[in-house]
Amino acid sequence: VGIDVAESFIQEAKQAARQFGKENVRFEICRLDNLIANLPDYGGSFDLVLLTGAYHYFYWGSTLSDQCFESHDAILSRLATLCHGTLIISARLEMKHLSDNVSDKNRADSRRASEYTTRYFLEAAARWFDVQTGPKLGRYPTYIMKRLPSEPARV
To answer: DSSP labels for 7-30?
Structure first.
């Protein structure tokens, strides 16, 4: 199952699946909270969740979706709901690595900007996951995060 908020990305994924003859895949336009609210319809919770290059959009929002969350805790608790196994994230976790339009747009919220750091991310992630730093994907590290045994996260 592949999820995105951008129709163009979903169409590209569907085209790639057709090109490689993959029929056992599904790509849907969906926002994170809608996915969680309808998780059984998408076949979740999932053993593996892969999130590459999108984490900062959950934190700050984007031009494609105004949905954003107020903290790392808010995001990671939702991701913990989606994932009962392994979450792999590759993300830019420092303000200086974000594109100008994202960092400029949100620089006014000094508390959130000051908490958008790898340290705050890792502290929050440790509430739901055992976090290991993996290899770099481009310039940024991956985090391989095994879901801790606990009650399901509540959103």
So the answer is: HHHHHHHHHHHHHTT--S--EEE-
